[in-house]
Structure formats: structure tokens, C-alpha cells
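Re: the request from the purification team.
They wanted to know what the chain is likely to look like in 3D before they choose a buffer screen. I agreed to run a prediction and write the result into the notebook, where they can find it.
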Amino acid sequence: MARELCVRDPHVVLRARVEEAREGERDKTPVEHLLDDLAIVGAMAGRARGRLVRGAIDGATEDERERVRRACGEATAGVGDLQRRCERELGDAR
């Protein structure tokens, strides 16, 4: 259910998180916070991919396409940094 909501409307999830923090967030471990963040990253990536698959940039101007290109690069770089950090922190602990 939470993953579905993250994919369908991640802004609702983020707003709920902000509100929860204002009211005093329940006790979560750092691992639980990290897992929540990773679920949001995955959900947002899936949502963006779905938009592309459904033709979000069909008919886009060259300026819009360039903005999307830059945003994709920035998102990819951020996820790449995250992946490298996870690999460093976790090593081969599988």
C-alpha cells in the first residue's frame, strides 16, 4: 500500500512526512528512515519512467527536451552516488 501511494502520488507521501515531523515523528531507527527514503527513490524513478513510456516528451520543444535531459542526468548522478555509497557501506555483506 505505501509503495503504491509513493508511485501514484509521491507528493502526498512527502507532505505527510513533513506533517508527521511537525507533530513529532514516531520512533524509527535510522535503518527504517533509510529504507523509507530508498522506497521513495525507487517509487519516484518508476513514476518518471512510466511518464516517459507513456509519451511525456512526445511533442516537447527542444528547450523542454534539454531540460528533461539535464534533469535525467542529475537524477542519474544522484542515484549513482547513492549506489556507490551503499556499496561502500554494505560491502559484500549479503
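For the purification team: Residues 2-90 form one domain.
Please add any questions underneath this entry.
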